[in-house]
């Protein structure tokens, strides 16, 4: 660039010299043609030498000027290349007082504004990414070619390392419902209603997602996966609960209806038959009454408004009160209720709720203890809690049932449970009460060796000892 500028300046100076000589020949010579020839030649030599001297002075000046201009233009070119490479902090040093500093200042101002704009865009992008990562929904954006352009943290947790930018969605997410939704969104134009699909159940084990998708204005599509597993589980629980309640009520109602119709149709029933039928009707009515009471108790315990009134109580006293209040029922069944050792440590417990817990556990054991003729209840002290237990010596429970016996309406032996008047809700009530106390509940059993139900209660905080006279 320096050579080009120098060549142009030198050419301009030579052109000026040619014009000067031409002016001398055309203007000065006619004026001096009548003068002496020697004077004219001296004048011509003076003009020539002055031109040569001016040329000698102009050459380095032109080189210096062209070098400075070239260096400043090179700085501008370097600045432009750095900006093109993404260096938005690049600036041009302003030198001189000609027109170039004004242009350099304008370029620096443009670079600063461009840097601020890019910084604001980057901040907005980071805020949007943080907001999408904090969402509970899984979000993935794809290009018009079906390639993943972006995904949030939830989507990456679900799909794992398979999903990443530039990878086809079909290779990252293999659920057919998601892929069908993506194709439908890509076929729609921006501004049209979003695409809604049903459920995707193969993305993660045991989880169900609702899929929504919409086309993007710049092409591609945005897919949102909403985890509805909890909603589906709650809905399934509700349906199962209604079905179980209906079944539990239908059985005694059918029995009552049948015996009542029989009594009505017989104009003169025998007294012993009437007495027998009325006893069966009363038994089924009591069963319905117990079921209703257990349903109300379970609904109350599961309600957010359910409040306990825990207070310090000795573990041995809780166990002793439970055995005394239930010993009569157990004795009528021909089973012996025994008490094992229990610590004197104090636990935080609601006495009425604990009475319900012991009552349900002992009544449950009573159904299976008739073969063993014995129930044992006791407690032992742990580090931060007291562990209570109720053990029967009946046939025991198979291992595949131990994890489910605390579910509502779950029965190990349905025929025996219904025959004994059980509702299938007692252990579920126990579970909720123990958990409301901050305790744990589990069962242990071996076939032929009976079953043991354990639950824990937290120890009561020790009251500070009173200080002496000296403080």
Description:
By secondary structure, this protein is of the alpha+beta class. It has four domains: 2-84; 135-227, 2-Layer Sandwich (Beta-Lactamase); 235-302, Signal transduction histidine kinase, dimerisation/phosphotransfer (DHp) domain (Helix Hairpins); 311-458, Histidine kinase-like ATPase, C-terminal domain (Heat Shock Protein 90), CATH 3.30.565.10. The chain has helices at residues 2-31, 37-84, 99-133, 153-159, 169-172, 176-186, 229-265, 271-302, 315-332, 351-368, 414-419, 426-436; strands at residues 138-142, 148-151, 195-200, 209-215, 221-227, 311-314, 336-339, 346-349, 374-381, 385-392, 441-445, 451-458. The chain has a five-stranded antiparallel sheet. Strands 7-9-10-12-11 form a five-stranded mixed sheet. Strands 6-8 form a two-stranded antiparallel ribbon. A hairpin with a 5-residue loop joins strand 11 (441-445) and strand 12 (451-458). Helix 8 packs parallel to helix 12 (426-436).
Order of helices and strands: HHHEEHHHEEEHHEHEEHEEHHEE
Q: Going by CATH, what is the homologous superfamily of the largest domain? A: Histidine kinase-like ATPase, C-terminal domain
In the CATH hierarchy, what is the architecture of the largest domain at level 2?
2-Layer Sandwich
Strand order of the largest sheet: 2-1-5-4-3
Could you state the oligomeric state of the chains shown?
single chain
Question: Mind telling me the CATH class of the largest domain?
Answer: Alpha Beta
| Structural class by secondary-structure content | alpha+beta
- How would you state the average pLDDT, rounded? 76
Q: Output the number of helix runs.
A: 12
Helix content: 40-55%
Report, as a whole number of angstroms, the end-to-end distance.
94 Å
Shape: elongated
Rounded radius of gyration (Å) = 48 Å
Strand content: 5-15%
Q: Tally of extended strands?
A: 12
According to CATH, the fold-level topology of the largest domain is Heat Shock Protein 90
Question: In this structure, how is the largest beta sheet organized?
Answer: 5 strands, antiparallel
Number of domain units: 4
